[in-house]
């Protein structure tokens, strides 16, 4: 009889939808209403039953599990932020944290669709445009992507946008390239931001709803990513892509200001995603520390291991507290770009440290995919940079607190 291999401890997340997360040390979730907690329970059950079992293989294969779209649609929450009345920012924040806790790539898919794509139409669209596109997107019958970043334009894309929009009668002709566009490989529509070539427009950047595929649009998946591998990022080439005037988002300012409103919202959501990753890393490390034995006892009983766990919990608690307060300010109409930028910078920076501490505690076993913490460690690197790098967010906050701009043009 062949000898069975030694079974090593396998850290697990507690996916019981009725069990409070041990990482919510100060019970911030108690601030939610009974109805919000009930909705969050439905989300947790979906994540437990449908998302958690498939994400490791999907991450390894760098594929998006398309069957999850139907499950998300069944939650009937995609349009919650645009309902009358809209869901609270506090609830939506916890929603993003919950999804990210199980898998941040899946949260990125959800955030691009509901926050960036739907948010652009809600902020910049006319009532007719909202009615045309948002109901189907709320049902997730139509999936959206957001085309802003370019090969030569990340942090400075607003001032240096190279994609152009040229008016030709009742149509616009779009030319240029977009990069790192999440959901692009399977999206039904892409919100494309482009600079108006009319000299009288003063270089205004405008948003367009571009059906995908469209003639002249080439979408190429970006291969070889080592972070957020489930997210289907793509390069988009626009070669004389024609869209009618009715597809130009003309209900808001009609300029990049509309995108700025969307980015404020999604930057706050990105902070919540960073909170979810920290919660997962802490809970996995805590689970492992209770099982793993060295020198005849669980490592959770060693002083140095407890120090790592306490540092992780401190990071999670501080990040969660800041995200909660920012959501409350936004719900009260007192939040600002600078508030959201500080929260994103702080939470993403703490996340980077927290996942490293968790990987350290799990030791060599922490680099194995099935132990999950390696995935969070890798995913955190992309999350640290998107929705505004740390440096750009510090400049936004720095301008707010000093009254002086340190941006270089």
Automatic annotation (TrEMBL):
The keyword Oxidoreductase applies. SUPFAM superfamilies: Acyl-CoA dehydrogenase C-terminal domain-like (SSF47203), Acyl-CoA dehydrogenase NM domain-like (SSF56645). It holds the Pfam family Acyl-CoA_dh_M. The keyword Transferase does not apply. Residues 145-241 form the Acyl-CoA oxidase/dehydrogenase middle domain. Its cofactor is FAD. Keywords: FAD, Flavoprotein, Oxidoreductase. GO terms for biological process: fatty acid beta-oxidation. Belongs to the acyl-CoA dehydrogenase family. This is Glutaryl-CoA dehydrogenase. It comes from Pseudonocardia alni (Amycolata alni). The lineage of its organism: Bacteria, Bacillati, Actinomycetota, Actinomycetes, Pseudonocardiales.
